[in-house]
Amino acid sequence: MIPSVLPTYNRAPLSFVKGEGTWLIEADGRRFLDLGAGIAVNVLGHAHPALVQTLTDQANKLWHTSNLYQIPQQQALADKLVDNSFADTVFFCNSGTEACELVVKMARKYWTEKGHPEKAEIIGFEGSFHGRSSAGIAAAGGEKLTAGFGPLLPGFRHVPWLDLDAVRTAIKPETGAIMVEPIQGEGGIRPTEDGQLKALREICDENGLLLILDEVQCGVGRTGKLFAYEWAGITPDIMMVAKGIGGGFPLGAVLATENAALGMTPGTHGSTYGGNPLGCAVGCTVLDTVADEAFLSEVSRKAGRLRQRLEGLVAAHPDVFASVRGEGLMLGLVCTALNADVLQAGYDAEVITVPAAENVLRILPPLTISDAEIDEAVSRLDAAAKTIEAA
Fold it and tell me: For 244, which DSSP code?
């Protein structure tokens, strides 16, 4: 008999009832150190006082009106994003998946407006993840995502991860854009290497293509910059943002240049809930906090401490861990043992990580994690590793 909740998740047998900063409290009272942050969502941790205050204040005023009317909180958040990024304009939605739907539409509408509707194809990369909608799974192309869901949305071509020669070869007259994650999340915390994003920008410029970045997981301060593309010294034409932007409140956005948004006129896209007063009020508080240079500097400092501790963990347990990779507070422990076994041992040690492809465990703590919590988290991972070794 099918359960009342559609069984599409393999859930851990844990029920969290409260959160405090970097900690989650289970129904039985156990306190877990959260190195997952709701899959890179809770950038300011759980129950952050400023977010609680913002949400409470706005909830007492107005929740929802729809986009039939002006929404001051939405305008404020759009202005903050434009001021702190490459973008000239922003569309608000509720998730990264919805953002992906729009970036595909926007890129194709751009070329239609330019008189080249045939340039509808988007080049993507093996191992990518862009959400689970029809456009998202077609854009990523992996069999794990697409099996059983055909016919797939056409217009996508896939090349090996960051194989620049393959990208150049894949460009055809019908190619309109390249889509890439600066750091693959679900794909196993695979960062673009120095110069590769810049090279993709140059390839797009040389061929007149749009560059689309998916910063749903790596954006909003996670790498020590507000957005990961800043490290490469380039700018995209269109970018997907979600997860951290709402600090736990469902919120997504598509950022774009005026040129890339050429065809997006009234009626071309919309959302009932997207950019509602609640979500955008929270988003404003998140951005006011995370975009601060002192805050981002602390993220980078803490990231260095965490990486150093994790490198020591790998050295101490070569039968469990092989290496550490990633940027900022978006790190991956490449496992020698099965990552599922290490994940479970972590639960037993009351520390939360997130599995990914390539036998990786993602380390995605709140950006507010303290030095003492970093040390305690690695101590708990050490205990988990010892359990694996003793098995």
Answer: G
Mean pLDDT (the chain, rounded): 97
Q: Count of CB atoms within 10 A of residue 311's CB? A: 13
Shortest CA distance to 22 belongs to which of 380, 385, 383, 269? Answer: 380
Confidence of residue 391 (pLDDT cuts 50, 70, 90): confident
- The CATH homologous superfamily for domain 16-34+293-390 is Aspartate Aminotransferase, domain 1 (3.90.1150.10)
Alpha helices by DSSP H, the chain: 37-40, 49-59, 72-83, 96-113, 134-140, 143-146, 164-170, 196-207, 277-290, 293-316, 339-348, 371-390
Domain 50-290 in the same topology as domain 16-34+293-390 = no
The pLDDT of residue 278 is 97
Q: Which two tokens stand for residue 359?
A: 């036998």
Q: Give the pLDDT confidence score for residue 194 in this predicted structure.
A: 80
The 10s digit of each residue's pLDDT in 118-133 is: 999 999 999 999 999 9
What is the rounded distance in angstroms from the CA atom of residue 254 to the CA atom of residue 274?
11
**Are the CB atoms for 328 and 229 separated by under 8 Å?**
no
**Hey, which bits of 128-277 come out as E strands?**
156-159, 175-180, 183-184, 190-191, 210-214, 238-241, 252-256
Torsion-angle region of 220 (φ positive above 0: left; ψ -120 to 50: alpha; else: beta): left
- Radius of gyration for the alpha carbons in the chain, expressed in angstroms and rounded: 21
Q: Mean per-residue pLDDT for 90-117?
A: 97
Report pLDDT digits (tens) over 31-79. 999 999 999 999 999 999 999 999 999 999 999 999 999 999 999 999 9
CA–CA separation, 88 and 78 (whole Å): 9
Angle at 244 between CA 290 and CA 291, to 5 degrees: 15
CATH of span 50-290? 3.40.640.10
Are 203 and 167 spatial neighbours (Cβ–Cβ below 8 Å)? yes
How far apart CA 351 and CA 28 sit, in angstroms, is 15
